[in-house]
Amino acid sequence: MISKLLLVLAPILLLSGMVIFSWERGAADSLLQRGKYLVTFGGCNDCHTPGYMFGKPDMNRYLGGSDVGFAVPGLGVFVAPNLTPDKQTGLGNWTRQQIVTAFTTGKLPTGRILAPVMPWRAYSRLSEGDAQAIAIYLQSLKPVENQVPGPFGPTQKVNVFVHTALPAVVYNGLPKLPSSPVN
Q1: Partners of 69 in the β-ladder
Q2: What is the pLDDT of residue 9?
Q3: What is the distance between the alpha carbons of residues 92 and 86, in angstroms, rounded to a whole number?
Q4: DSSP one-letter code for 63
């Protein structure tokens, strides 16, 4: 009697386990795709991929950290960091929750507050599910070894290109380069 019952129940249990596994995998794939969508739509690539600011993003180092710093008057120059899961130069030693906390509150695991140029205040309005999806996606990327320099304090010498906002009077006083057609 027990052996007949097992013959009937075993395939049912096996099939239900496969359905649950398939559903969980589908949910994980869905979160990964949602994270990719949000990272793309949020423009993370714009600041965190080398070459992007020069019009030639290095997609082999996608989200591997910038080669341009952002000047914030009175605070210094900040280079967008490596968002890949590289353990030496990226987020590889961070937990998913530490990643979410950083881009939704501006607080790094070290206690440092992100520079104002990072739009964490806008990301603080993400749903918990969307924030988790972004972290899951970032953790799924190919690790890129790229240690970005900085941050640089307001009196420190900078060794990267610097993106800055200047008052018109200062900009207009800069030396002019020979003109060339803009592509």
Answers
A1: 79, 162
A2: 53
A3: 5
A4: T
Q: Could you tell me the two tokens for 172?
A: 């207009």
Other beta carbons within 10 angstroms of residue 13's beta carbon come to 11
* Confidence tier at 29 by pLDDT (50, 70, 90): confident
> What are the residue boundaries of the structural domains of the chain, listed by start?
46-166
- CA dist 34 to 131, 140, 164, Å? 10, 13, 32
What would the pLDDT profile of 83-113 be if each residue is shown by its tens digit? 999 999 999 999 999 999 999 999 999 999 9
Q: Considering the entire predicted model, what is its pTM?
A: 0.78
What are the distances in angstroms from CA 58 to CA 42, 73, 144, 161?
18, 29, 11, 16
* pLDDT per position as a tens digit, 133-146: 999 999 999 999 99
E strand map for the chain: 68-72, 76-79, 161-163
Amino acid, single-letter form, for residue 46: D
Q: How far is CA 64 from the centre of its chain?
A: 9
Of 34, 93, 41, 44, nearest to 65 by C-alpha is 44
For residue 33, the cross-strand partners are: none
Q: Which has the closest alpha carbon to 115: 145, 148, 159?
A: 148
Average pLDDT, the chain: 87
